[in-house]
Amino acid sequence: MKINIKVSSFLIALTLFISSFILPNSTYALSGEISLEDNVSQDVPSKWAVDEIIDAEIYGVINQELSKDYKKHITAEDLLTLDTLLYNSLDTDSSNKDKIDNTKISLNEYVTKEDVMAVFYNTLKAIGNVKIDETDPVKYMISKNILKGSGNDLKLKSRCTKEQAIIISKRIYELVAKELGNTSKGLMWKVSGGKNDVYILGSIHIAKKDLYPLDSKITDIFKDSTHLSVEVNILDLENIQNEILDKGFYKEGSLKDNISEETHELLLKKLEEYGIDYSIFEKAKPWYTALSLATLDYQTSEYEKAMGIDQYFLTKGVFNKEILELEGAKFQFDLFDNFSPETQEENLEGTLLSLGKTNNDITIQGEMMQTMWNYWKNSDINGFEEIINIATKEDTEYNEKLWHERNINMTKKIDGYLNSEDEGTYFVVFGAGHLFGKTGVLKGLEERGYKLEHIK
User: Per its UniProt record, what PANTHER family does this chain match (predicted)?
Assistant: First the structure.
């Protein structure tokens, strides 16, 4: 049981709230520079479309080939590609594809908005996982708020741009997820009692595709917020990379010189199993080696990966919200670098042990991540509290620094947002591990007299 606690404590920490080392994935929508003041390039979306294009990428309803020429009129070929991607994202039964009837639609290079509605409507009917009573594609799309507007404003006979078609596809994906109850509820609370409203969202920093879409209650609150606060602005890549180079590697000596022979042998064994060259870590410190390997199962698995929850909101909020940090990259890297050599090696050992297989023939690492994803998706408070209690069970240097002190400091920071003269609505995202426990943010805010409302 001792080993299990050691393994789970570090893994929970990494998955739930240590974000600095997880560098963001590039997004198709943001592959070029976007100026919201003068956005004229065809290769990036219009200002009004950026938010939903990011969602479309995450959901898998566009690919890299479609992620260009957003403002140009969509071709029939691209529309059918988009339709196939939507179908594949919504349905795993390939036989349903034969039921799609587009024979009455005459597609040529002149693709209208009406054509787009008809193609997607037919696909949705063929899949058959949502009830459709309306026989007219356009009326159906309007009734479900997929197509917005009325009468002549819809311009159904006008040519459809690629970004317009992508957004229609994305909204259909969200509709199906909502009607089937497949959206993620997350772990979110409204905090009131100060000058400003604050919403706190417990995050998971590594994610997979089926955590999305998020429940509209979460995304609607985010859209209406004025400030976004995260642990670390992980879009500041240069700063993070500089911190890694400065603190994550030995300037003199090597990893082998600073860990036991047993731990070193275990490291070599696991690197060989995963086909990783040891030279990558030859000069790395134990704590950074542990961080790098703590999500190895995730990186090498067949999960359909997606950006973490905090990265998701950062990618969207960078255009229209004030970005704040609860901690910052320097704080988090200093935290690990200042742990004793013994604690650093224990964490490395725990990470390596987590790559061992369970009775279900998956790694401890993979099992832990899947459990937390399920708890988060279903807003399972009791489940999260249980694993946090396991992680913080022992009174150690590690738990004191990584959990309790940070919990207290985050509570103080959120208290500051609640009473800030910079008025607005604050949307605060941090690792879900900080919400619970004897020093957790929820308990800390309640003790300060604030009212908490679970958003579910």
Answer: CYTOPLASMIC PROTEIN, CYTOPLASMIC PROTEIN-RELATED
